[in-house]
Amino acid sequence: MNGIEQETADGCTLIRLRGEVDLSWSQQVRQAVLEALSTSQRVGVVLSEVSYIDSSGIAALVEGFQNARSKGSGFALVAVSDSVRAVLELARLDRVFPIVADIEAIPDLSGTAAWKP
């Protein structure tokens, strides 16, 4: 079952996605990411419970990343599942997105250009 949960802690908004991020659901993901970026300087998208992502889901994440960069906000992918990581690697987006292994590693991004507000 697909789902989106959002929480804010330590100046970072976490968006936890669950299920399959495909054309039927990617618009809600896009909206959640852009809304979080409108109110937070740092956004992490947790993908540990995403079993599948298609090009529309990737597009929603890319748009969020570009939006964050244009505003000088931080954006990262967190706890990326193996199936999502395979898609990111195939598209070479693992070299574009800041990716951390888990939520506890988010502070390690504080010195990176992609995470500075």
Topology (SSEs and partners):
Elements: E1 3-9, E2 12-21, H1 26-39, E3 42-53, H2 55-71, E4 74-78, H3 82-90, E5 99-100
Parallel strand pairs: 2-3, 3-4, 4-5
Antiparallel strand pairs: 1-2
Helix pairs in contact: 1-2
Give a written overview of the molecule:
The protein is an alpha/beta fold. The chain has one domain: STAS domain (Transcription Regulator spoIIAA, 2-Layer Sandwich), CATH 3.30.750.24. The protein has three helices and five strands, in the order ββαβαβαβ. The chain has helices at 26-39, 55-71, 82-90; strands at 3-9, 12-21, 42-53, 74-78, 99-100. The chain has a five-stranded mixed sheet with strand order 1-2-3-4-5. The radius of gyration is 13 Å and the shape is globular. The mean pLDDT is 90.
Largest sheet: 5 strands, mixed
Q: How many domains is the backbone divided into?
A: 1
Spans where pLDDT lies below 50 across 5 or more residues: none
Which of globular, elongated, flat, extended, rod-shaped describes the shape? globular
Helix content: 25-40%
What is the number of helices? 3
Structural class: alpha/beta
CATH class: Alpha Beta
Question: Looking at CATH, which topology would you report?
Answer: Transcription Regulator spoIIAA
> Strand fraction band?
25-35%
User: CATH-wise, what's the superfamily?
Assistant: STAS domain
